[in-house]
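Quick start: what a row looks like.
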Amino acid sequence: MATATIRELRNNFPKVRKLVEQEGEVVVTDQGTPKYRLTRFTRIARPAAPPPKDYMARLRRHQARPLSAAAAKALHESNRGER
């Protein structure tokens, strides 16, 4: 594990950056005491966003189905009664 001082960070950052890229981690000391740890940034893969909701499909799923012509005629005849 590589170490660097705060002064090196301020005055020679490109050198410290190369150390981070090579080693993966650099401990930064302040007056000889380790205070900070520099690591390379890695993006966390976020899961893909869910697809948008299709509200029309949901509405059609819960909507009543139209009657066939034969079923409509039979319903009409049964509602008419004996006229």
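That is the whole record. Helices lie at 6-11, 13-23, 55-62, 69-80. The radius of gyration is 36 Å.
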